[in-house]
Design goal:
- The structure is a single chain.
- The strands form 7 sheets. Strands 10, 11, 12, 13, 14 and 21 form a 6-stranded antiparallel β-sheet that branches. A 4-stranded antiparallel β-sheet has the order 6-5-7-8, with helices on one face.
- Helix 1 packs parallel to helix 14.
- Helices cover 40% and strands 21% of the residues.
- The radius of gyration is 30 Å and the shape is elongated.
- It is built from 16 helices and 23 strands.
Length: 573
């Protein structure tokens, strides 16, 4: 609890610092240019704390998603800022109103300088933080680009094997799985050249993947490859039932290979264990045979070997995939119900392909599309054949047959932890800011090509998402939090410079128009435009916040509770 309170306190402080710096820029330039300042506020909505000094109301408001400086000589928006509560008598109020009305007009240049000062201060603040990081070091993800699992056998994927290392995507070198994803999103078109290096071969092979973004065909919304990165398989739990529960593995054991083939991930491990010859021949050919499983009990202990029985028909009653149909409540017709599948059925094969895991089954359903498929199942030791006609879920766009899958292999593995390492050499402040700029252009490009990339407005993060990510970074390492703060400040600067009324860019645009016309824009037009766009901005914030809470909060909870590894010395490639 103390750790949680500490993280939240630091997050509020860092996020508040970015907002404070921005609003202080407006405030300071406004005073220097002789403008009247009514209020300096951090946050929007109801006032939580306020204090008045020298005629200026300083306040902290309930919604920590921004802030404002109230300048009566510039158009503001009461939709965001609200009306200031007056405590004086009516006579005093009337005198103040008359005084406000007599305030001299502000030149377009002053308005531009005041509006531009906020984003400029965010940029300056970002460079200050980047300068600090230049001294203490910048961390980057150290995830491997080695393939741990191949989720498709179609096309060029048939040439990829677990253990292959991805070295280039779209002609650019990649050193982490995150870089792979970014390169795919940035690429325009569906045919992406991917260069692989295979262990034991001096020559790398070039493979061209066709990335189809239509969700009704592949069930994948965000542009990417059907590949997963390698995982370290360290046993975290051993159950009482399941195919692997009694083979002899214990908590802390690290699985290395099966039949002298190195294991690169959990689903690769299951593939190596479960894939056998045709079911009819299993009982004869594999009678008395076993897989050779190599593992390391502890990091420093000697390697040990186990003999794991080859799964036969007699072991399927302890296999771990079932349909999980909800029979407690009426459900609308689904492909599984129409095919007369029942809760507890064990799925053995899909279109004559033996299933090794729930992930394997999902991949096969995705590749099959809406074509009819044959399922071989085991129900109360009786083998049955069923035909199912998959359909598309209108909400997710994914092909499905309407079943819930459960797994109990008998053992569970430790979830993969995030690994970070210092960049060598440490990027200077300019390089750090340019990397942020590159990420921003990547995001904008992905949004403008939404049908191709699958990235939409709901994939953006609002205050909840920002708080969530910053919390994870603070908990992991202060250098990650500072790097995120550089990103946040540059984003705030660019967002506020958009030529939209209610944002600083909108004030600048209207001031430029005023200077060209040599007369102010109609007060009614300014107020109407500012209020309308303020409502649109708040609506958009609510929209992204909805998806932050619905889709990302569970992920943030999981990541917050997961440990991360920091390698203080740069790891070798």
């Amino acid at each position: 609890m103390l750790d949680f309170i500490w993280v939240i306190s630091v997050v509020v402080l860092l996020f508040g610092a970015a907002i404070f710096v921005h609003e202080f820029g407006h405030y300071w330039v406004a005073l220097k240019r002789g403008l009247k300042v009514e209020e300096f506020a951090i946050g929007f909505g109801p006032v939580l704390w306020s204090r008045e000094k020298d005629g200026i109301l300083y306040s902290i408001r309930a919604i920590p998603a921004g802030g404002f400086v109230k300048l009566p000589q510039m158009i503001t928006s009461e939709a965001i800022e609200g009306k200031r509560k007056e405590t004086e008598s009516e006579d005093d109020t009337e005198e103040e109103d008359e005084e406000v009305e007599e305030l001299p007009p502000v030149s377009p240049l002053s308005k531009i300088l005041v509006a531009f000062a906020g984003p400029l201060m965010n940029v300056v603040f970002a460079f200050v933080i980047a300068f600090i990081l230049w001294g203490v070091g910048v961390l980057k993800p150290a995830s491997s680009t080695v393939v741990g699992y191949v989720g498709s056998n179609e096309g060029a994927y048939s040439k990829v094997m677990p253990g292959d290392k991805i070295v280039e995507v779209d002609g650019k070198k990649v050193t982490s799985w995150q870089k792979i994803i970014f390169s795919l999103i940035r690429h325009e078109g569906q045919n992406v050249p991917v260069t692989l290096e295979r262990k034991g071969s001096e020559n790398s092979s070039s493979v061209t993947f066709t990335v189809n973004l239509k969700a009704d065909k592949n069930g994948q919304r965000i542009k990417g490859l059907y590949l997963s990165s390698e995982e370290k398989l360290i046993v975290s739990d051993v159950g009482e039932k399941g195919y692997l529960s009694k083979i002899g593995l214990k908590i802390g054991d690290k699985v290395l290979s099966v039949d002298n083939q190195l294991v690169y991930g959990q689903h690769h491990f299951l593939d190596l264990l479960m894939v056998t010859t045709d079911e009819k021949e299993i009982a004869v050919e594999n009678e008395g045979k076993a897989r050779t499983l190599t593992f390391r009990p502890t990091e420093n202990a000697a390697v040990k070997i186990l003999d794991v029985p080859v799964p036969t028909l007699g072991t399927w009653d302890s296999f771990w995939i079932w349909t999980g149909l909800k029979d407690e409540q009426p459900l609308p017709p689904t492909p599984a119900i129409e095919a007369k599948l029942e809760k507890g059925d064990l799925i053995l094969k899909f279109n004559d392909v033996r299933i090794t895991s729930s992930r394997h089954l999902i991949d096969l359903i995705r590749e099959n599309g809406e074509k009819g498929a044959k399922l071989q199942i085991l129900r109360d030791k009786e083998h049955l054949s069923k035909t199912v006609n998959p359909s598309v879920n209108p909400e997710t766009g994914r092909v499905q047959i309407g079943i819930a899958l459960g797994e109990d292999a008998g053992i569970a593995f430790t979830p993969p932890n995030a690994v970070y390492k210092p960049m060598d050499p440490t990027p200077n402040p300019w390089e750090q800011v340019m990397e942020v700029w590159d990420m921003i252009t990547l995001t904008v490009g992905a949004l403008t090509r939404s049908q191709e990339t699958g990235v939409g407005a709901k994939d953006l993060s609002g205050p909840v998402g920002i708080f969530g990510m910053l919390s994870i970074q603070v908990k992991t390492d202060y250098r990650l939090a500072l790097s995120f703060l550089v990103l946040l400040n540059i984003n705030l600067a660019i967002l506020n410079l958009l030529p939209v009324p209610v944002l600083d860019g909108g004030h600048i645009l209207m001031s430029v128009i005023e200077r060209i016309r040599n007369k102010p824009i109609s007060l009614r037009v300014q107020e109407y435009a500012t209020t309308v766009f303020a409502i649109m901005l708040l609506s958009f914030m609510l929209y992204v916040t909805f998806f932050d809470i619905k889709e990302r909060v569970p992920i943030f909870k999981e990541l917050f509770g997961r440990e991360a590894t920091i390698e203080e010395s740069p790891a070798s490639e």
